[in-house]
Amino acid sequence: MRSPASNETTPLRVVPRPTRVTTGETVLRLSGDFSIDIDNSSSLKSSIPRDLEQAIHHTTATLHKNRHRYLSPQRGAEFLISGTQHTEIQKLILSLNGNGKPRSIAHDAVLPVEDRVAAERYELELATDGSAHIEADTSLGLYRGLTTFQQLFFYSGGKDGFQYTPHAPINIEDQPAFGWRAVLLDTSRNWFGEEALLKMLDTMALIKMNVFHWHITDSNSWPLGLDDFPELAGKGAYSPEEVYQQKQIQKIVLYANARGIDVVPEIDMPGHTAIIAESHPELIAGYQRTPFVKYAHQPPAGQLRFADDKVTEWTKGLLQSAVTVFSSPYFGTGGDELNTTCMMEDEETATTLKSKGWTLEKALDNFTEQTHAVVRANKKTPLVWQEMVLTHGDLPSVKKDTLVSIWIDSKDAAKVLAKGFRIVHAAADYFYLDQGQGGWLGEEGGGDSWQGPYKSWQKMYSFDPYKDVEEGKRKLVMGGQCSLWAEQTDETNLETVLWPRAAAVAELFWTGAGAEGYPRSSVEAFPRMHDVRFRMVDRGVRAIPLQPYWSALRPGTTNK
Amino acid sequence: MRSPASNETTPLRVVPRPTRVTTGETVLRLSGDFSIDIDNSSSLKSSIPRDLEQAIHHTTATLHKNRHRYLSPQRGAEFLISGTQHTEIQKLILSLNGNGKPRSIAHDAVLPVEDRVAAERYELELATDGSAHIEADTSLGLYRGLTTFQQLFFYSGGKDGFQYTPHAPINIEDQPAFGWRAVLLDTSRNWFGEEALLKMLDTMALIKMNVFHWHITDSNSWPLGLDDFPELAGKGAYSPEEVYQQKQIQKIVLYANARGIDVVPEIDMPGHTAIIAESHPELIAGYQRTPFVKYAHQPPAGQLRFADDKVTEWTKGLLQSAVTVFSSPYFGTGGDELNTTCMMEDEETATTLKSKGWTLEKALDNFTEQTHAVVRANKKTPLVWQEMVLTHGDLPSVKKDTLVSIWIDSKDAAKVLAKGFRIVHAAADYFYLDQGQGGWLGEEGGGDSWQGPYKSWQKMYSFDPYKDVEEGKRKLVMGGQCSLWAEQTDETNLETVLWPRAAAVAELFWTGAGAEGYPRSSVEAFPRMHDVRFRMVDRGVRAIPLQPYWSALRPGTTNK
């Protein structure tokens, strides 16, 4: 057996690292007419879901197109002794367990988060005689197996280049530890076009991420083009071209679902809504009020007048219109960074509160109750930020099935869990991709970003999802995500900010503790991170280098 | 007069801000058949240098292609009242002062650094009747004026889009405060292809940077393809494709010179040379010795056996071969981070020192004396890092005309100036572009980069080149540069790491203290930085956004 480089626990360079792996050292090559087939006895044979069929075509094409070479000083030549006849892999056979009409990948991509772990399970076998097989209970599981299969192969280079794997026989049993492995992208502060989003979804799929938390609107621009509310984007988008039209969103969602990715939209409210004032000034308190630092976390100030019944009614209509555009079982209503000064100094709000005899919290509770009712009436579960549970007292409107994202500090997870809510880890001290680009508010001399330095992939990878979480509460941890708030990011640097860092988050929440426990070792993961980075580059993604190329070729030489 | 937004000192959004500017508020548009001509009385009329002629063509084409719009909520529509007939600019006339055969841009790009300031001087006039004129003493000065002229214009948008300037009449008298305004790029740790370098030079020219400090070799790879030493790149480059062949280098140098940029090469020695061992193992002490942390600042360890006469002779040959490839009056020989343990534990070096009765410092002095003699014999001045003056005692070999770059700490500038050397500011605490990407040496949990957080453009801009510099020493400050060490940078993120940050450095060292004194105000500069960033993006450069687009359109709203 070839030993893995440095302290790798597997010589496979598959990201995320599969749960259970055995490998050998036989080199197999992919036949020039390699193809992917369905097992004759499988229910897929008679009725294959369209998205799985497309995934099969895509996998075959991707394998033949691959030009990524093994990262070692000899670029893999050590496996390819001249004159050796390597056994060829002619076919990869897919089998779906069970009977009944197979469900599509897209169908299972939007299962409730707890059901995703089982649905993503697959087994992969690659024998030394070249026979190859993936088995799963779902199309989604087969899709995950196809993704792993791609990462087993390296390009030989040379004039008759071919694809080979140096690690046969390979046996993999794999499933994620967590059902929520997400990227959040904020598309309000700066604009990202459809092409950039689709490419991001492709790269997420490569590393088996399964949730795109789409923070679609905020105070800076309103790119959400809803058929029933055209004026919102009409006056609130950066330009007529910088709008996601409703049909286009549905296309993006379908594209994501077919790759096993749930698109969870978020319309953050009642804060983070200032731009609504461009089309509906009467709905917003304190629009562009200055000094902004008193009335908002960042300019422009302005929040929904959520104490006002008319505003609540309008918001319910908006939500009813938005919710149906998305296939996700979840809908994000935000709830972070509510600025109370902005509300209390708003004359109309003050008058309303007085006439109703309400506190601001009571008004928020009423607003939440009514808006969440729209989400629930559409058979969806609300997703909120931690303040909705920790900051405004115990609001009865926030029902216990609500998903709560932790963002301010990872220590806050325990507090939310103590109240019995399910959580998603997204804390700024580990998972904020936007940090470390320098302060962006104008000031003499600048400074570091507000939440401290750049979060390296190693830092993200060192996170323990169960830190301070008692045994009985662990089942409430749904998973985690890295978040890209877009103050200093647009299409020019989306990929360099996101990749390959997010792959560390993908692996952390797919693999879980593994046999080694938490924290996972970033030193052990380094060779895989290099490999997946260069695989991304081979696919045209601007994933940044993690070390000098000299070091990338020599795992284990460049540690502290 | 329209007042400039926020606290801008000029409404012009030209980067670097010109030294003396007056503006008005007449809108002029560029004629559809706008052209650039030579003044009839100018010596250029009979003999125009080829590179100036090309710059004229390029400027005309760039002006017509421009799609960059004015950054304001109305995107410049406030200047373009419908139905108004804007006077057209038909021609821009260039005049070269003096008689005699005009020199090329390239000629003056490689003047001694003290002579550059006068050579880059120009005057620009744009009258309300549409007449436009640039006057200078050199082709290089005219070139700088052409660059400014481009930045005066914005695209109108609309179906019959045109270029206009809202600020006529405009009078500019401009020249740089410092003759060294550089970007350093390390092309050894990771590879950058020719196309990426040429594009970088174009962007440098846009902001009037005038030195490309090319740290071409280091310990990780040897991409320098010299006709006389083919084995160095043959065995030391990352691949046969990742080599700058000698002819290709000359093409790159010419391309730079024609844009007013001096390419100052650097072969860092005697440290930072480990990779030479791949082709000449006998020249290198301690190649790949571990633990690297004992023998080098980063892997792989290995340094020239500089005490050895044969090594010195070989190095002289190498320098003679390399020096002639470049047109610069300067040649960098490095001299930073010499690891003494690596040398003292090298048996051959120890034996040599003993037999000669030399200390390591004496050996270094001899090596420097002899290698610098080659540089000087070719009529070039050596450029070294600060350790050559501060760390090894006063080496007589380091002559007082040597240029010394400050890198470890900006406070070290005063120490080097005290010894009477000319300096270039390149200190890590202000000007290291690579910082803030997280630690890159493998370690559990990762960490921040070695020299602290990301250096924001505001931080760079806040630098005072004369801090702690007594009046009499100021003439020894040649200028400054930002440095991009490439541990975590290659072509995927070159532009996002470099742009637009380096524009702040360009402006700082072009403008000098200005009327406002040091430190320059980054708040005042913000609107220009936004503008030049979007201008870069319009030219296909992945310069990163500095704020939400909402803020970029509204200068002054988003300050602390």
From TrEMBL, chains A, B:
Q: Which reaction does it catalyse?
A: Hydrolysis of terminal non-reducing N-acetyl-D-hexosamine residues in N-acetyl-beta-D-hexosaminides
What protein name does the entry list? Beta-hexosaminidase
Please give the family membership noted in the entry. Belongs to the glycosyl hydrolase 20 family.
As recorded in UniProt, its EC number(s) are 3.2.1.52
Does the keyword Hydrolase belong to this entry? Answer: yes
* Single GO biological process annotation from the record: glycosaminoglycan metabolic process
The record's section on Pfam families has: Glyco_hydro_20, Glycohydro_20b2
Q: Name one GO cellular component term.
A: membrane
Q: Organism source for this protein?
A: Kockovaella imperatae
Q: What class of enzyme is it?
A: hydrolase
Per its UniProt record, what InterPro entries does this chain match? Beta_hexosaminidase_sua/sub, GH, Glyco_hydro_20_cat, Hex-like_dom2, HEX_eukaryotic_N
Q: Where is the active site?
A: 337 (proton donor)
